[in-house]
Amino acid sequence: MIGAPAAPLRTPVLPAERGGWWHAYICPAHGVELEHDGLLDGVFPAGGARCRHGCRIDEPAVRGAWTVLAHQASARQILALATSTQAADRHTAVDLLTAYARQYAALGAAPHDGAAQWMLRGRLFHQALTEAIWAVSIGRAARALRSVGQPLPAEVSQLLRALGTAAGQARDALVADDRFDSNYTAWLVAAGAACSGRPEWISGRHGLSEHVLAAVRPDGWEWEGSTYYHGFVLRAYLLTLEALPHVAVPGEVRSRLTAMAGVLDTLATPGGLLPALHDGPYDRPPAQYELDELQDLRPLLGAEASGPLPVTVHPETGYAVLRGSGLHAVLDFGPHGGSHGHLDKLALYLYGADTPWQPDPGQVPYAHRGWREHYASTAAHPTFSVDGIDQAECAGYLIGHDDRSVSVGCDTAYPGVSARRQLTLHDGALIDELTVETDRATRITSQLRPDVDLTVLAAGGGALETIWRGRQTLRGQHTASTDTVVLCRPGPGPADDPQRVRTWVDWTAVDATTVTFRSIYRMEN
User: Fold this and answer.
1) So what's the pLDDT on residue 108?
2) Quick one: average pLDDT of 336-340?
3) Could you give the CA distance from residue 228 to residue 216 in angstroms, rounded to a whole number?
4) pLDDT tens-digit map of 128-142
5) Per the domain annotation, does 473 fall within a domain?
6) Cα torsion angle, 377, 379, 383, 389, sign
7) Closest Cα to residue 405, out of 431, 386, 382?
8) How confident is the model at residue 109, as a pLDDT?
9) How many folded domains does the chain comprise?
10) Is 424 within the bounds of a domain?
11) Predicted local confidence at residue 111, as pLDDT
12) Is residue 176 part of a domain?
């Protein structure tokens, strides 16, 4: 029996304005990303963009940010129409591509005049980066239509040539500014490949092959050490491969791409939580599209490595991941990570399969300076602090590891201060020993930063017990080598909603020159 034909896909209304800076799509009062309402309607929401806490924001920067999101959503919808089995949908895709071609041509050659000085400017968008992301969807849609014999007007071909040329010019600007390894470059390469189909976007000078070796460390991490930007760059690489399936990729480059995918496999919990290390959203529903697309593209890599081991160390980027007895721990000890780094050397992040007991809190969009400063700070992270001030931008180092433990250190977070942290999987538990030594008597604090309900119990003799409740429950036993004081206080939750209040614990040795904080964590059965 033949089923009924699929319903036609919705036709988006293309925004008439240029896109602004999407990072401005944030509530100035609450620090949350605004709701993604009406992106396919072509008109900014009446009354302003909604904040989940009740605000309505209607400001030029927010309108410009919404327009970015609307253009990107429209391009994705055009791609969906172009790949539809329905001829009517494909014809609609052609009409929309033609409309975009006319809109882009009408802008002339001048770049966007509203962008900040530091931005690499586009024409339809503030940033060449967001324009490249949009252009990839446009190029993919055109390629899908051509693959089924759908003719494209000359205007669309002219648009594709213009976008490919713009991608090359922006990439050249990055190279001239000694920023070839930027995550921008990966998307400019993807846009050039998607819109031109020319093999040099993989094999040529400053193409994908060169960028992978420049921007991805041998341990498989994109050099900035941010989960979000790692996946962001990998997705651009895979879209480039998709656009040029017949172009050979050198074995070293393909191996590094496979290692990039392996990083995400190792980092993710068995339940699919992906720690939001350093800059990037902690929990952003619109990003699910990006993760889904990344999974859809992964077969382009071919065979991949087997599952993760109990202890995995990424020595160049400076992460260690320990998995056992329902516990999933991530230890941060590597380089700062450039503009996307946070002041969290030797931080310990703890997850269950489905529960972020003590996660990296992630980051809010760039436009909210106050909350960005908070989420980059030492205070926001489960690490050590001295005298309550931020660590310096610094790197730690690997001392050693085996199949059950890892030991790391850092000597440059504070003048005259050395810290060591050792994690061990033993007898169904995770043992954490953090030792800090100073050249003067000072306040040394070990910080607990949950994203679940936390119960703290004094156990006598200065010991503590903690209960971390979520879909899985974690129990901790905590002792210190010297006298300590404990301060439990309300603090902001992770960056998806700074208004979510959690119990912060500052566990402090006062007037100390050395202290070892020892914690034993077990998941409750």
Assistant:
1) 87
2) 87
3) 14
4) 999 999 999 999 999
5) yes
6) positive
7) 431
8) 80
9) 1
10) yes
11) 80
12) no
